[in-house]
Design brief:
heterodimer, A: about 675 residues, alpha/beta, eight-stranded mixed β-sheet, 22 helices, B: about 325 residues, MetI-like fold, 13 helices
């Protein structure tokens, strides 16, 4: 009997009598870290349980303690700096915290597996995939190398990797991100574990690949009766798969309940706020994003009372006291004194006023005009002679009008970032032109460029690495003022920096701080202030909010919109998150594999997408609503991005397109205007 | 891979040609030549005729380009000419010393690598404990103590405690292995200490870095034995940067042991170098520079090839 067959046997591991019994019980867990800033209480009093075969989601923002909890279950916390002063973790009847290192090692990989966030770095680069999969089989199950190899081939087949026997001999760098995550899942499944902990398993992946991986994990967990803990910040991911949801905030569990209840009837103000601050594809676009104002507390400083009180709109006197975990009307748990009032509908999160559609004066001359832009990179390939030309950007044309936001959306490798770099002249185009206010940037002289650079600014994705760690915030923002002599002297520069800081919602005293002293959202505000210092008329936002937490992301999007309204800026908003692009953009360009697939007004594009790729993309994006998500059929896009060195003939999407036919392979479809203002590059529409 | 190696080997030709041009003409720019040093010695009176005759004999009277051409033709056929001082073939002079220098370098490398890997690994695994501090102090010592001085300490201790001094003449290993090794182990130790310190510190820091990598966490999450996590998952990755250091140090040892050779009274390449420079022995200097340059190029090539063997991500074209 092969592995796959054994899984398909009716009685395999699915013991109905046990299916309701508790597999993992975490009781009053506390985790402390010794840091240079003093002791950080990363997890405080966490209690939850997971039943056999159940899918539990732990949701929270960065620093909420969700990953630390997972690592403490695995006992993989750094030994030198971490401490578990209190608590019990009972797994299958044994307290994991009492086990010796050797006993714990036997449990890891055999009974509990873990899948990590970064498929790019979680596999050892110098060992073959085969060795990495067979390792736990040989260690835990005492298999011979031949048996282990056979099982590894089965496992790779199970997670949907074609040609498994050959791929066993390969190294991680020969796999794409999605394929590596499948390998990680195969490793996790290797010894038939009872529990798999997946820490942000799809965060690093593209939407279409994310859908594939999540479907695979859910399917395997159900079929093999494996309990699954999914840790994520993405509420959409949770909605589709979880039976139960645990919401964590500032080291504590704040709400727990079955998925439908937490999403539809949250009983904690934080969950309410979190759900409201996500831009959503399934709801009409609100004028302004709801946000939770303020920042999460510093865990190194002990804090009395409710952790969420400083950001909570429903704060009253009693919130000075620490709330316990209280039973809600729905049978869940909420750490809020006023949960009964929430249940009664007495407390409603009031939307922030203002906003509204940003009026764009219909101008006829575009501010930026991109025509037939082409960028090829020559690559010198490896042994197998895979050298050649990467067509990163091919025949891309669009216009951006003053005061407008153009969204540029697509998966990784589609060329969207290269387009941004070409507009900024960080790369030289192979051909085509980029006209900004009448001047062609591609052929502009250094002198012309200097004036243009003032008008075109950029906000980068990563607020952690795009600010110089050795400069203060004031120096970072002041540098362009000084270089371009926008201010006459030191005093004026200080004044201008303070003004800019206020403009992006930071206090003036922030100027004296260094980037590492700021939170992610604050750093991104500094990045925006630096861009604004030049008084630009156009800003390229390259994934400007994708590294931020949900509640912070909303704040930054609102800030960008406010600034646009006040200063009349135009944005090119490059992102992979369809919901965010929908919220902020007025028109949207969809790119795939270096080419433009579709261009339309935002509402038209999202309501009536024409191109099959756009449809697939919208379909794959999870929506934070369990009823919708669980109801809909998985309509998965097949396959992966083709190799850039061997592009498909004809339409670049034909290898994955549900509508593809022979004629799609013949010629590259041109971008045609199908309805007024709505362009698509597909012969089938 | 083979194509890469072949093209790298072919690329050494222009490199060595450049070295040849540089060394040949730089030597001629320096005033004076071997004949003056040889005949005048310490100020003896020699007639101009005698000097001219000697120059003619050595071919130093020919036009510069002809001399260069003759030398290059010789080099191309691996004939480096005769030493202008001893008038024995350059190859013979060098090979006599190379045997010794190469052996010291290899012994020092072996000592260094076999001590450095466990030393650096232990220090990393017991980071910030007394074990780590001891290793760090010992290795800092290796970096700061000049090897000739450490060599003198070794000699003095041998003399003081065992009343033993290494022999003056060199015994090749195939003649008497014991005598050979008892003679060369001391200079190898003297230079090996520094070498070992450099490599151990490299391994310690790169292992600490690797131990923080996500794939180490993955290996632990799989329930892999901790010993296997270190040896298979961590150390193999951590050794990569150490290979470069080992290659560089090794090439240095072959030609750069001038002072240490003096201390141990070894007639190696370093000493030959100093001698031939002070004698203005053009052909010998040229030959040695060419040899050491070629050696550098090939050791570096070997390092790059080793990299590709250890790291599958690197595949050269």
């Amino acid at each position: 009997m092969t592995l796959v067959e054994s899984y398909q046997q009716p009685g395999h591991k699915a013991q109905p009598a046990q299916s309701d019994s508790v597999l993992l019980d975490v009781d009053n867990l506390h985790v402390h870290f010794e840091t240079s800033r003093g002791m950080v209480r990363a997890v405080e009093g966490l209690s939850f349980n997971v039943k056999r075969g159940e899918i539990v989601a732990i949701v929270g923002e960065s620093g909420s303690g969700k990953s630390v909890s997972a690592l403490s279950i695995m006992r993989l916390l750094p030994k030198m700096t971490s401490r578990i002063p209190q608590g019990r973790i009972t797994f299958d009847g044994r307290n994991l915290l009492d086990l010796s290192d050797e006993e714990m090692r036997e449990i890891r990989g055999q009974h509990i597996s873990m899948i990590f966030q970064e498929p790019m770095t979680s596999l050892n680069p110098i060992l073959t995939i085969g060795l990495q999969i067979t390792e736990p089989l040989q260690i835990h199950l005492g298999m011979t190398p031949e048996q282990a190899r056979e099982r590894a081939i089965e496992l790779l087949g199970l997670v949907g990797i074609p040609d498994p026997a050959r791929r066993l001999e390969q190294y991680p760098h020969q796999f794409s991100g999605g394929m590596r995550q499948r390998v990680m899942i195969a490793i996790g499944l290797a010894c038939n574990p009872k529990l798999i902990i997946a820490d942000e398993p799809t965060t690093a992946l593209d939407v279409t690949i994310q859908a594939q991986i999540l479907e695979l994990m859910k399917d395997l967990s159900r079929r093999l009766n494996i309990a699954l803990i999914v840790i994520t910040h993405n509420l959409g991911v949770v909605a589709r798969y979880a039976d139960r949801v645990i919401v964590m905030y500032a080291a504590r569990l704040v709400e727990e309940g079955i998925a439908e209840n937490v999403f539809h009837k949250p009983r904690h103000p934080y969950s309410m706020g979190l759900l409201r601050s996500v831009p959503r594809l399934d709801r009409p676009r609100g004028a302004k994003l709801e946000t939770i104002e303020g920042l999460p507390p510093n865990l190194a400083v002990p804090m009395p009372g409710c952790r969420f009180a400083p950001r909570c709109p429903f704060k009253i006197a009693i919130c000075e006291q620490e709330p316990g975990l209280l039973q809600t009307d729905l049978g869940g748990l909420s750490r809020c004194h006023r949960h009964a009032e929430i249940a009664a509908g007495k407390l409603a999160w009031t939307g922030i006023g203002g906003g509204g559609e940003i009026p764009v004066a219909k101008e006829t001359t575009p501010l930026l005009s991109v025509r037939d832009l082409v960028k090829h990179f020559e690559v010198r390939g490896g042994l197998r002679g895979d050298s050649g030309t990467v067509r990163a950007v091919q025949d891309v044309s669009f216009d951006i009008y003053p005061g407008e936001t153009l969204g540029l959306v697509g998966e990784s490798g589609c060329g969207k970032t290269t387009v941004g770099r070409l507009i900024l002249k960080l790369e030289q185009p192979t051909s085509g032109e980029v006209r900004f206010a009448g001047t062609d940037i591609a052929t502009a002289s250094a002198g012309e460029m200097k004036t243009l650079r003032r008008k075109i600014q950029v906000i980068f994705q990563d607020p952690y690495s795009s600010l110089n760690p050795r400069m203060t915030v004031g120096e970072i923002i002041g540098e362009p003022l000084h270089v371009y002599k926008l201010v006459p002297g030191r005093k004026e520069q200080h004044a201008r920096v303070e003004e800019l800081l206020q403009q992006v919602g930071l206090r003036p005293e922030m100027a004296a701080r260094y980037p590492h002293q700021l939170s992610g959202g604050q750093r991104q505000r500094v990045g925006i202030a630096r861009a604004l210092a030049m008084e630009p008329s156009f800003i390229v936002c390259d994934e400007a909010v994708s590294a931020l937490d949900v509640s912070i992301q909303g704040q930054i999007i609102n800030l960008l919109e406010d600034l646009q309204r006040r200063l009349g800026l135009a944005y090119l908003f490059i992102a992979h998150d369809l919901a965010v692009v929908r919220h902020i953009s007025m028109r949207v360009v969809v790119m795939y594999f270096g080419r433009v697939m579709e261009v339309a007004d935002r509402d038209t594009l999202y309501a009536e997408p024409l191109h099959p790729y756009t449809k697939v993309l919208l379909d794959a994006a999870p929506v934070p609503d369990p009823t919708i998500e669980k109801g809909r059929e998985p309509r998965l896009i097949k396959g992966e991005l083709p190799s850039h060195l061997a592009p498909p003939s004809g339409c670049v999407f034909n290898t994955r397109c549900p509508l593809a036919s022979e004629e799609c392979r013949q010629a590259v479809p041109l971008l045609r205007e199908i309805k007024p203002g709505h362009f698509a590059a597909c012969i089938k529409v | 891979m083979l194509r890469y190696v072949v093209s790298r080997v072919l690329l050494t030709i222009p490199t060595l040609l450049g070295v040849a041009v540089l060394v040949f003409f730089m030597l001629r720019i320096v005033p004076g030549d071997v004949v003056e040093v040889k005949l005048r010695g310490d100020g003896g009176n020699v007639s101009q005729e005698a000097i001219e005759m000697e120059r003619k004999k050595l071919g130093l009277d020919k036009p510069l380009m002809t001399q260069f051409g003759d030398w290059m033709v010789g080099v191309a056929t691996l004939d480096f000419g005769k030493s202008m001082w001893t008038e024995r073939p350059v190859m013979e002079e060098i090979s006599l010393r190379l045997e010794l220098s190469l052996q010291v370098a290899i012994m020092a490398t072996l000592i260094a690598v076999f001590i450095a890997i466990p030393l650096g690994t232990t220090a990393a695994l017991f980071r910030d404990t007394w074990i780590d501090y001891v290793v760090r102090i010992v290795t800092i010592g290796g970096l700061s103590i000049p090897s000739f001085w450490f060599g003198m300490l070794i000699m003095l201790s041998l003399l003081a405690f065992f009343n033993w001094l290494p022999p003056i003449t060199f015994t090749p290993i195939y003649v008497d292995p014991v005598a050979n090794i008892t003679q060369l182990i001391w200079p190898a130790l003297a230079v090996g200490y520094r070498y070992c310190a450099v490599v151990a510190r490299m391994i310690r820091s790169s292992l600490l870095e690797v131990l923080n990598e996500d794939y180490i966490r993955t290996a632990r999450a799989k329930g892999v034995y901790e010993k296997l996590v270190i040896s298979r998952h961590a150390l193999r990755n951590a050794l990569l940067p150490a290979i470069t250091v080992i290659g560089l140090e090794f090439t240095f040892l072959v030609g750069g042991l001038v002072v240490t050779e003096q201390v141990f009274n070894l007639n190696g390449i370093g000493q030959l170098f100093v001698q031939s420079v002070s004698r203005n022995d053009f052909t010998l200097i040229q030959g040695m520079v060419m040899l050491i340059a070629a050696f550098y190029v090939f050791v570096n090539l070997a390092v790059d090839v080793l990299y590709a063997v250890f790291d599958p991500r690197i595949r050269y074209t």
